[in-house]
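User: Run a structure prediction on this.
Assistant: Running it now.
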Amino acid sequence: MAEWNGLGRYPEDADVNDRPEEGTLLAYVDGSYQDALKKYGFGCIFILPDGRIYTEYGNGDNPDSLKQRNVSGEMLGAMYAVRFALNSGFTVIEIRYDYEGIEKWVTGAWKSKNDLTKKYAQTMLGWGQKIQIRFTKVPAHSKVKYNELADETAKLGVANGNGIPKVKSLSDFEVADGVEA
């Protein structure tokens, strides 16, 4: 398999204990920001029930979103993950994150105080009518393997991304990977 560049199929499978149950997509999401580039980015790590791992990243420079710095990337990552799960036919997505707002704006534990976080919460609540969304907080920068990989991917997204990519489905990754769907 080709060397991993931050996108597509990750060159190893998830450990058996890290695999979700059938019908569930496990997604680690993270955001990043680089002031020198005036860009925010996101990284997503998708772990499938069979252990395959796929990754995606992207970035943006919307002036309103730049005010939120890495938080914009955090929200983009979570939204991208849910759309990917919907496009791929999953019935459940578990989002693992290290920034509390990812869950707390959606559950209402935190009040959304600006248009960006309000739109995020409304969008996620709407999608929650179509797919079960589970949130799991993981500690930041604490050697949680796939969270560290999401962090690395988000940084690659800021530096190497070409905007916010079209939301893929699993079959898009499989075709690129040479797997028959």
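The two ends are 18 Å apart (CA to CA).
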